[in-house]
Amino acid sequence: MSCCAKVHVPLSPRCSNINKQISLQNPKHKSKLIKMADAMSYEYLLRRIYQVGRYGKKDVDADVYRSFEHAERLYTLEQGNIAKGLPRIDNRSITQLETEYRVGCKHIWLIIAKALKAGYEKFGHQFTSDQKQIFEHLFVEPKELTKDHLDQVIDTAESIFVKYKIYPA
């Protein structure tokens, strides 16, 4: 049996209901399951910029991003449960969950924006004019921050730093 073989395990009714919500067949969740490196990409980007090892600087830790991802997943799942009339998983109001998600977005954005500015000042002399323009666009905060936007900023910035072989310490 290969490591990726599907095994049928009978689940309790509650587990099967949750399993249906987070099904691999659902394209909305497929990208989240495939893209597991978001938290590590966040950490590596910041470590590249600040040239530090693990725990070398405050907030340069994948767990900070994972906490934000948890808030985003819970908010998204609860929105879906409300729309479908399914039972709620969390007892906090949807407004509280949204606030937690939005605060997390802003917190991650501030960390990334500060790091990108530091990275641009430190390594910007190596970048081409096109890459400098890309960085200037990355600095602009959108009207509504989302996890997708943050992931795109991280991926774009990380690809530029990798091209110049700027690696974490």
UniProtKB/TrEMBL annotation:
Which species does the entry assign this protein to?
A: Mucilaginibacter paludis DSM 18603
Q: What is this protein called?
A: Uncharacterized protein
Q: Which domain of life is it from?
A: Bacteria
Q: What is the lineage of its organism?
A: Bacteria, Pseudomonadati, Bacteroidota, Sphingobacteriia, Sphingobacteriales
